[in-house]
Automatic annotation (TrEMBL):
Protein's recorded name: AprA-like MT2-like domain-containing protein
UniProt superkingdom: Eukaryota
Domain AprA-like MT2-like stretches: 376-660
Species of origin: Polarella glacialis (Dinoflagellate)
SUPFAM superfamilies assigned to the protein according to its UniProt record, in alphabetical order: S-adenosyl-L-methionine-dependent methyltransferases
Listed InterPro entries: AprA-like_MT2, SAM-dependent_MTases_sf, WH-like_DNA-bd_sf
């Protein structure tokens, strides 16, 4: 038998629908079974590498499946089939989203209780999509569309013709592709205009001669949220709505009309809801019911009437004669959804200067030699922190599933003594973890004998102070302390230098072997460090990186585009640095956000934040990649989930992966893509794993690697390849049934949605 056969009882239990038993003896026309040359005792010892390969394949393909793939091992006892989704797909494309207009009550639907827990409700995001994309669309209509209407061009060619800087320009072009104004050919790297009424309306409404476009431009430069009502900023927004909304409301493009509504309403709604509950410093005033009766009595009568019309169209409520907003029962929940606008609108300083970034200073806000604590100019940090906190609380609860497993038993000596949060912010995650351990685990009953020390690590002194204040509230009961503060940690060995963090922790008597590490949404926000080792051009891993990030755009500090191969190599080295730091510890419980490709973004435009988040995060030098690439990057650095079944993706029952929640640990092996240079070793594995008459010749193995270079994995132990997993795409399950073992590669169908496992072999 081959490796996966002998280990089938130990493969991950992924629930009903994943595995199906095939007949124990295959028809003669199918690829024959192999018999192992290893005795059972040897196999039980050596199967861990094969299991790692199988489990990683399941882990990675879990995200591939979200894009519509199915997969199956060829000619083994097991057949992996497509998971039976509870989730029923609902159309969330732009065209399907506009039917309800801007009514916030209709602009939300749920995909199941798990999604509700994670996101409260999956709401439709057209308004905030419109505001975030606004400056990019204004520049596209003003100058960038014209050359693309004449033919297909690369971003570099458009830059040369228009004078725009290639980095931010590429983000504009990607945005317009997601909205359907451009087509992108990933193989050629070219963009072309999609001629038709949608593009015509965009150019008419947002062209440089349009009075509406001038009014909308003023909103970005003069009305950065949050602002109070009444104020000059509010007047700019209300005047734009009063004077120009009729010109786009009846546009032939219903999508564009709502996007333009968002350019006005997003900053207005952000400001109204923010100051109803928080002050300028971000202090929560504790007014949980503040949104139920908002007071606009200080506004002039005409502005009150206009706001009343807006709120009625939004389905929120109506303004009384006294100038207060009477919120309907449905409207109360609807207006709370505006909290999700805070993070994207916090980047208003960056979007306000987008023309300058596009044509003059692509590095604006990131290249200056500024104080890290005081020098941020591209983001309204207080609004950003408030918005992030509002979104993360429920996700923190989900992260407790992993933390709970670590502290669930009663062998307290074998549990962590320290919890280390790198990028601790205001300390809420550490506080959440402590309260969970104290109230929901056996360890919580013996904290007097087995204390748990919470460690906050952050380059920002204000964050360290905030952490100390938040945790200090519990100090007498929990012996909580912020061990790392002041001068001990500073930027020179911040997040991207974990060895420095570990050294500082050791100086404060924090034992790395008794530490559990946690962090949330930090890896994508790391400073970019160019990789020391570039991916070899033409290699399988280079092809993988290009395929996974074919339409992604990432910028360095200067605003120049970072090639996909360099970004992926940088991620692997980042993971490797953290892998070294985590060795011997209890691992890392982490939440992280992923980026969606353009086709997936278009398909789920209105039930996912990806479109608008990807714009501001890519502009602000944040480095999200696909879930598949993130999983592979960790595997190449030896970082794997403690339990593949426990990896949680968001949405849990959706067809894409926007976020991941997992507990990673350092393993003694690494998994990477098989390369042609591995061929001599793979031939030796073939000889050990199969009877002589069943061994595939070297040219057969070479053809497997060349035919489908991004779907074959090898496992390395101490730098030596000890196992291999061969996979490829086929168009139908019938093709799997009719394949012959030595001619498997002949059935490969690039882009097909079935991915068979051929076999696993090990030393």
């Amino acid at each position: 038998m081959n490796g996966i056969d002998c280990c089938r009882d130990r493969l991950p239990d992924l629930g009903s629908g994943y595995w199906e038993t095939l007949p124990s003896q295959p028809p003669s026309s199918r690829a024959p079974y192999a018999t192992s040359n290893f005795d059972p005792q040897t196999m039980s010892v050596m199967s861990s590498s094969a299991l790692a390969l199988a489990a990683l394949a399941v882990h990675i393909l879990r995200y591939v499946e979200l894009a519509g793939f199915v997969w199956a091992p060829l000619d083994t006892v097991l057949l992996m089939q497509r998971r039976r989704m509870i989730w029923t797909e609902m159309s969330a494309s732009l065209d399907a989203a506009v039917a309800a207009g801007i009514d916030l009550n209709h602009n939300a639907y749920m995909l199941g209780k798990n999604i509700t827990r994670a996101c409260n409700a999956l709401l439709r995001f057209l308004l905030i999509h419109g505001w975030t994309a606004g400056p990019l669309l204004l520049e596209f209509a003003a100058k960038l569309a014209a050359p693309l209407c004449r033919g297909s061009l690369t971003a570099a060619q458009v830059a040369a013709e228009t004078g725009a800087k290639e980095g931010p320009l590429a983000i504009v072009l990607r945005t317009c592709s997601a909205l359907g104004y451009l087509d992108f050919d990933p193989s050629a790297g070219t963009y072309s205009a999609v001629q038709g009424s949608e593009l015509d309306e965009l150019l008419r409404c947002l062209g440089p001669d349009s009075e509406a476009s001038k009014a909308l431009s003023r909103i970005y430069t003069e009305a950065c949220p949050p602002f109070k009502l009444p104020s000059e900023q509010a007047t700019v927004c209300l005047d734009a709505w009063r004077q120009h909304r009729p010109s786009w409301k009846n546009s032939k493009s219903k999508v564009l009309a709502i996007l333009m509504d968002g350019m006005v309403l997003a900053p207005l709604l952000t400001s109204i809801t923010y100051f109803a509950r928080w002050d300028e410093q971000g202090l929560d005033l504790g007014k949980d019911k503040a949104l139920e009766r908002l007071d606009f009595s200080k506004l002039d009568a005409s502005s009150q009437v206009l706001l009343g019309e807006i709120f009625e169209e939004l389905g929120v409520g109506s303004i009384t004669a006294q100038g207060t907003l009477s919120v309907s029962s449905k409207g109360s929940l609807a207006i709370q959804r505006v909290y999700s606008y805070y993070v994207p609108t916090s980047y208003s300083p960056l979007l306000a200067r987008f023309r300058q970034v596009l044509y003059e200073e692509p590095g604006w806000g990131f290249t200056e030699d500024m104080d890290e604590d005081e020098g941020e100019i591209h983001v309204e940090r207080t609004l950003n922190v408030v918005g992030s906190g509002a979104q993360h609380q429920t996700l923190f609860k989900d992260l407790m599933r992993h933390v709970h497993e670590v502290f669930a038993g009663e062998n307290f000596e074998a549990q962590p003594e320290f919890v280390v949060d790198t990028g601790c912010g205001d300390g809420h995650l550490l506080q959440h973890i402590y309260e969970h351990v104290k109230n929901h685990t056996p360890r919580g009953k013996v904290l007097d004998k087995h204390p748990l020390t919470m460690v906050g690590v952050d380059f920002n002194e204000k964050s360290r102070i905030a952490t100390a204040c938040n945790l200090g509230k519990h100090a007498k009961l929990a012996r909580l302390s912020t061990m790392v503060s002041g001068s001990l940690l500073y930027v020179s060995f911040c997040f991207y230098r974990p060895s420095g963090i570990m050294a500082a922790l050791k100086r404060k008597k924090v034992d790395p072997n008794k530490s559990l590490h946690v962090r949330s949404f930090l890896d994508h926000d790391r400073p970019y460090i160019a990789p020391k080792n570039q991916l070899e051009e033409g290699s399988a891993v280079a092809a993988f990186a290009k395929a996974q990030m074919a339409d992604f755009v990432h910028l360095n500090k200067e605003g120049e585009p970072i090639p996909a191969t360099e970004l992926f190599a940088s991620l692997v080295e980042h993971m490797a640095r953290w892998g070294d730091a985590l060795e011997g510890s209890f691992g890392l419980c982490m939440l992280e956000v992923m980026q969606l490709d353009v086709p997936t973004t278009k398909r789920f435009m209105n039930d996912c934040v990806s479109f608008h988040f990807d714009i501001v995060q890519c502009l602000s030098r944040q480095y999200m990649i696909s879930a598949v690439a993130f999983a592979m990057g960790g595997a190449m650095a030896g970082l794997f989930p403690t339990d593949f079944k426990s990896v949680q993706n968001y949405p849990e029952q959706g067809k894409y992966c926007r976020m991941m929640n997992q507990h990673l640990v350092r393993r003694p092996y690494k998994i990477r893509l098989a390369e042609l240079a591995d061929l001599p070793t793979l031939e030796k594995l073939e000889a050990k794993a199969w009877a002589q008459n069943l061994c595939a010749a070297g040219d057969v193995l070479r053809k497997r690697l060349e035919t489908s270079p991004t779907s074959n994995l090898v496992c390395e132990l101490n730098g030596e390849v000890v196992a291999v997993l061969y996979m490829q795409r086929v168009s139908t399950l019938d093709a799997v049934e009719s394949e012959k073992f030595m001619q498997i590669s002949d059935s490969h169908a690039p882009g097909a949605n079935i991915l068979p496992f051929h076999s696993i072999k090990m030393t």
